[in-house]
Amino acid sequence: DIVLTQSPVLAVSLGQRATISCRASQSVSISSINLMHWYQQKPGQQPKLLIYRASNLASGIPARFSGSGSGTDFTLTIDPVQADDIAAYYCQQSRESPDTFGAGTKLELK
Amino acid sequence: QVSLKESGPGILQPFQTLSLTCSFSGFSLGTSNMGVGWIRQTSGKGLEYLATIWWDDDKYFNPSLNSRLTVSKDTSNNQAFLKITSVDTADTGTYYCTQIRRRVHGWFAYWGQGTLVTVSS
Lengths: 110, 121
Fold this sequence. Notes:
The complex is a heterodimer of chains A (about 110) and B (about 120). Chain A is mainly β and about 110 residues long. Chain A contains no helices and 13 strands. Chain A starts with a strand and ends with a strand. With about 120 residues, chain B is mostly beta strands. Chain B is built from no helices and eleven strands. In chain B, strands 2, 4, 5, 6, 9, 10 and 11 form a seven-stranded mixed beta sheet that branches. In chain B, strands 1-3-8-7 form a four-stranded antiparallel beta sheet, with no helix packed on it. Chain B is globular, with a radius of gyration of 14 Å. The relative contact order of chain B is 0.32. The interface between A and B is medium-sized, with 24 and 19 residues.
């Protein structure tokens, strides 16, 4: 299975930029299609799709969220961070079955 | 507007069979390329993909649990079902059903609120 590695915690100040990374154990790209997706999970809630195929904003997601990357290294950026963005963020790959998730990055306030 | 909701027993004992129902609205499992996926979140493994049932009744299972999983659907009543046999404490967690709209290389577009399952003797 493809292993996705995320840093456990990222501390950020409100109004600043947050950069959350996800590294895959092997490439999750096929040609120019990057099969990495990002989810936000607030305490007590279900995960919510933020970004699909590395850089495409899901419906209803604010433009302060963006995604980038290819191959094995991917980034979710939140700029500027708002109080409502304090949550856990997970990456997921669908390049190879079974789909796998990262362990999540908890975004905290400095 | 897509909505999904899981329901289940809450608590069960080791070696029993877990049966979960996903009731959904806003889409149909009779629509081409539509699927319902099951994912769980446990303290031991975090988010773990379990299985998917597709509109044409095709199924995919995570090989790590393959022999214990069954998925089915009731298209006319907008429901999908997951069964896990011979549960143990490691199966304790929150179980989610999700909508998937691409058969290959897809993502989990919408999630239910989840249902907590506790396995305890």
